[in-house]
Structure formats: structure tokens, C-alpha cells
Amino acid sequence: MPALSRTALIMALGCALASGQAKPQAKPQTQTWPHPIPARVKDGSNGDLFVMTLGDVQTPLSQGSYDPTKDELTLLDGTLLPHYYRDTLKLKFFRPLDKSIFPVAPSGFCTWYYYYQNLDEGEVRRNTDWIAQNLKDYGAQIIQIDDGWQAEKADGGHGSRDWSSIDRHFPSGLASLAHYIKSKGFTPGLWIAPHGQSNDQVVQSLPGVFLRKPDGTSPSDTWEGKWLVDPSSEASQAYLKDLFSKFTAWGYDYLKIDGQPIVVDEYGKTQAFMQHPAEPDKLYRHTLDAIRSGIGPKRYLLGCWGLPVEGMGLMNGSRTGGDVVLGWEGFLTALAPTLQSYYQHNIAWYTDPDVMLLRAPLSLDQARVWASLHGLTGQALFASDRLPDLSRERVDILHKVFPATDIRPLDLFPAVRNKRIWDLKIQHLGRGYDVVGAFNFRQDRPDPLYLNWQELGLPANGPVHVFDFWNQEYLGAWEAGLALDLAPTSCRVLSLVPSDGQIQLVSTNRHLTQGWVDLQALHRTGSGFSGRSKVIKDDPYELHFAFPRGQNFEISQVSARSSSGALPVRITNHQGWATLRIASPRTQEVSWKVTFKPAGFYRYPTQTPVGLQVEPRGLDGVDLLWKDQYYLNAGYQVYLDGRLLGHSGSPHFPLRGLDPARSYTAEVRSVWEDGTESKGLKKAELTFTLAALLPDTTNLAQLDPVRAEGRGAEPRTFSVATRHREGLTAHAGSEVEFDLKGLFSTFSAQAAFDDSDRGKTPVTFVVLGDGRELWASAALPKTAGPKPFSLDVSGVKRLVLRATAKDAAPEDDDWLNAPHAAWLDPVLMKASK
């Protein structure tokens, strides 16, 4: 984010909110965008919470209302923040997104992340055919050809920056390929780095178009190309317009322009060689005006990569981060810009955190995590695997998140940490429900997570139905909250529906939004429901119904009809819930009815758990642990100091946000499906003080940061002098902050580089305690070897690790070539009493 750090922004917003009192928002009127929307401008009590909305949502989490037409934010206490996006968020060229032509973010396929520059015409056609058969009905719209279509390099390699001819692997030509894509019902898309050119002969034939030094050489030779368009030249404006007019004449209606931050940066460095020097951002926008004049207003323009905010208002979308790679590191590359730039999505433009990859070696859990990122946020959604090769399980994951939906942020501010609880609030057809993603981004260990209903804006003292979307199972109805087990690099996506004391529809299986995409009408009848749904050919459609807690019903009658007649259905009755399944031989709209009748309810008397103990986790939390119970139960209820925290299906529960010096009393009770708890004189109860449980030494890599900027500092194993060492990444430009709570006396670590480092730029390592510099290295090259240090951190509450590198510009594939620096063996020693 330019000009203002995210930390400074959140501090400013905190001051603005200090006098506000939280209260529910009045229901917004349904109207054409742009219209006022509910907003949060800072984190609430849980800094791990990331909130989105879909539909006309009302929530007590809202801290005010934002009017995009006026660019004005009004807090609940009446405080006005004028020009909020322009001035507070520092988006100089902000104007509300025009949704009249593109009402939602695009969904489709990109060739790059399987084929890279070794693409050919046959593979484009092969994937297009597969998508027509397997993904078109799910909402895929765009087939985008990436780098590799353009003229070959002088050595015969692919991927030049010469747009004057076409690679030999496209013998039918780009116009013919666009025609084929359109014949299958899709929009053809094309990648280009238009401001650059690598063919000297093309440059010589276009006087006045490209920047030149007095001696005729290029003043700008970058990833974008050997030569760079002069943005101040009339000839260059005509060149860009004609270039994009050619692409649209070929039939391409989705244009992805790459390397844009490089262009803006170079325009700041090459003023001396321009015909008419001016402010770099304004010159850059002149080039976008020329591109837009070549493609017209009805074609999609995507700026790429690394958040080219100077194009806001002229671009339809923005590729907000670097290129992903296949593997968990690739997902983390998509995660960072999602959290840091999502406040722009569906308000200023459609954000694009790069493609979604689902193929091996990603596990199925990891593929679900990546898909959930897109399904919960509604950002641009592009697959980039060789789709015919995906397994049935991975194709099913693909189906569950296509297409992108009209989701926008409630949180109109950038996140400063990898938030793990993503709450999508939905209002649709009279149904108000939450779809919550609970994530474990760590690779090194399981990480239980606690969902607090009150922190999510849900009623805390009444049952909330819980349905697990990816596992397609009902988990019961529970008060106060829920604890979840999360394996490394995994997630759970839950539908949360407050109980109204009647039978309720809690989920559908078509899309992760669980009703928004498929459900067209819903009516409650005297003993059941009727409705209309969009169903997909040969993909069984399921509706899941939950019963009031402690009561049981079963489906007694059901029907499903399309315009061509009755459709086959299947009923599954469970205790506490039931499923209606509809099969359809074609993609169509289906009307359905379901009727319920009372059924018996089985109960088992629960018994008191045994073996309760506590283990510290981090500096403000513990995990409660107890023995698996031999006798049947439906889980456990956990109390802290007499207050119900919520339900756990497993014999453990995470307690977080504790005061290390305070004494707490925890109690665990077994519970049955109807909410009946174990009772008796014997209790599973213990009293503890966290400070007394902490070990003498703590590895900093095991603690969760409270703030991370740049790419943060992720825990991982490094190879240093061929030895495997544990530590935290020290990406150039990163800053990460930990809350030590004044518990430690010494901090020691080593500043070092991984053996795989390819960067030549030295890195400066800095440690700060409560804002005061405690230690700083010189600018260290890899050849310097590890630099150990040990610091007195007595009384320090906020420890900051910062890594900087001079001239670490975002070019030349920096996500690969940036210095691979590390904070090795970062250890904290506990203060003596």
C-alpha cells in the first residue's frame, strides 16, 4: 500500500473509532451499485477475523457506513472520514468500480501455470473443449492465453517482447484461435507486456514511439522489454491504440497487461529521455487511455502484477500480487495480497490474487484451502492446471467454487497478519447465515482454532447450527462457540445458521456460498419447504435440513420437477438432520418440495470426562486436554470461570487471549446431541496460571505474530552450510511484530542466508523493542556468513524484526531472485522471578 503504512493507517482509524459505540446497522436498501455499504475500519476484539458480505447484510460487527459515490465513511458515532479511499487509504485515482458491464469478477482459465512459454495451439483447444464439457455450466467464461503466443526470440526460444508476429506453435493464427474459443461459448483473453519491445527492427521502424538516449541506445532495459514506450509522445499513443485495436480485431475481449509497476517505476527514472516529461503516474495513465481507446469500454482490462494502483479507474481489475508457484509457497503468495489488498475488491476494481492451482503435489486439503480462498472472497477466479488431467476429487473442488460471486469486504482496511478466521456473511431469500473458513496456514504443526459466536456477530446464548461444507456433514447446534481441529495446511468451511426453533435449510452442495449461486426461491410451508434451484447436468444436487436441537424428524414426502417432468430424488434421514438429493440429466432450473414428519430421538446419558490437564500454547494461550471417553457422547462443553465458551467434538479445546499473570478455572462437561450435559458432584475442573506453565526458553518461530508487513516472517527449515536449521524468513522489505508481554530477558538469533539464495543484494537486519532499536547489522551479503547476536529484552512487550535491502525493486522475477535471508534459531529466554 503506497505512502501510508498499514500500521499507521490502523492507528489512525483506531483514534477515529475511539468514541464510537457498536450498534446494529439499519438495513440498507437494495439498489444499483454504487450504493452505501456497511463497513469495518479496524479489527474488533479478535484480530484473527477477516469479514466479507454477500447481499444486503446487517451485522453488529459493522462500525459504520461507506458511500462509494461520495468516497465518504461515516462511523457509528457520526464521525465523517471524507475521501476515505483517496486520502486515508492513499488511492490517488480512486473512483467506484463501474459494474454495469462486468457485474462480478471474471471466472475462467489461464494457460501460464502449466504451460508457461511452451504453449501451443492444440493445448489451448484441448483445454477449451474440456471446459466446454466440464466447467461451462458452472460459470467459466474466459479462456486466457498467456505469455508464449508472441514472436519467437532470436535464438528460437519462446516469450520475446515482440508483438509484431506470432510464435510458430500457433500455426492457425491468434484470430482463428479466438474464433474457436468463441464458438465454444467463451470469451478469448490475451496476455501482453505492451509497454515493452525487444525487436530492434520494430523500434527503428517506429520513430518517436520508444524512449532513446542521445546515442540511440535504450535508457530502460527491464523485464518489460529492451525498449520502453515513451508515454509523452503522440506517436506512442497512436502505437498503443493500434496495437490493442489489432488484438480486438482478432477477437480478444479480455486483455491482461503485465509488468505494470515496472513501467511506472521506469517512467520516474527516464524523464530526461521523454519528449514531454511530466509526473510518472499521469504519464502512465496516458498510456492506459490509449490502450482503452483501442479496446473500447466493453472489454476487460486487467493490470498485472504487484498492485498497479496508478491504473485505478481505468482498469477493470488488478493482479494484486506476484506470480504463484505450484506448492504451498504458491498459496502463501496468493494469501498475502488477498489479506492486504482485499479492501479494494468489488469497490474500486476486481482484485486478482493470481490463479488457483489444484493439482498434485498439493494435497487435497491444500487444494481445498486454495479453492476456499477464492470461494469466500469472490475475487477473480482462474484455473491454471492442465484441466483434463485433474482427478475426479480435484474437479469436484473446482466445481464447488465456480463462478466468482458478488462478494465484497466488510473490512475496508488492509490486514497486517495472516488472519485465520474468514467470515462471509450472506443475506439471500430471507436467509441470513455465515459461511466461515477456519484455516491453519502452518506447515509444521496442527493448530486448533476457536470460533466465538459473539465475535462473529452471532447470538451467543442460543444454538447455532453448524454444517461442514467440504465434508458434507452436520455437526450439531451449539451455544457460545465451537473448537475445531485443523491439520497443517488445511481448512474447514462451515455454514453457521442461528436456530429459529423450526426446521431450517442449513446448506446446499452446489457452491461454497451454499445457496447464493443455485437457490432461486425458498418458501416455508406448514410441514416443510418448497423452492426452485439451478442444478447442473449429471451433478447430484443436495439440500441439507437441520432440526431444532433435541427434536427429530424425517422426510415423509418429496418431489422434484423440471419443465420436462419429474426427476429422480433420494432421501437420507439422520438424527438431527436430513438430506434431499436431486439428479438431473441436464443443466436446468428445478422446482422441488419436501415435507417432514416427527421421528424418534435417541438419547444417551453422558458421563463426566476425566484426566483434564493444560498445556501452554504461545504466550497468551493454553490447550485444555482430557482423555477420550469410553462411553458414548456427542462431544464436550467447555467453561472458563463459569462461562460457557462452546463445544468441542474432540478431547481438547484451545483457550487464547489469556492474561499470563491471572489465575483461571476451566471445567469440561460431556454433552449429548440435545444439549444435555454431564452432571454430578464429580467435576472435570482445574485451576491454572499461564505464566507458571511457560518453559524457560521459547522458539520465536512457534509464536504467532500480531503484525506482518511485506511478506512477513514465516517459520521454515533453512539449509545453511548444508545444515538444516529452524528459523523465520527475512524477506527484503518485511517487518514482523510479536507481543512478548514483558515475559523475557534475552533474545538471541543469527542473521543468515539460505544455501539456495540467488540474490546479490545485501540485506540489513534490524531488531526493535517497543520502538527502540536494539540491534542492527551492516548490509550483509550472503558471503558474510551467519551473524549471531544476543540482546537484553527485559520488559520488552513489542519485538519487531525488520529486513531491508537497497534497490529491491519488483522486477526480474523478484519472488524467485530476492535474497533468501533468515532469522536462524530465534530463541527467547524467560525472565527470572
TrEMBL record:
Sorted UniProt keywords: Glycosidase, Hydrolase, Signal
Highest taxon in the source lineage: Bacteria
InterPro entries assigned: Aldolase_TIM, Galactose-bd-like_sf, GH, Glyco_hyd_98_carb-bd, Glyco_hydro_27, Glyco_hydro_36, Glyco_hydro_b, NPCBM_sf
Claim: Signal is one of the keywords in the record: yes
Signal peptide span: 1-18
Domain Glycosyl hydrolase family 98 putative carbohydrate-binding module: 694-830
Entry keyword annotation includes Hydrolase: yes
Recorded family membership: Belongs to the glycosyl hydrolase 27 family.
Protein name in the entry: Glycosyl hydrolase family 98 putative carbohydrate-binding module domain-containing protein
Organism listed in the record: Geothrix limicola
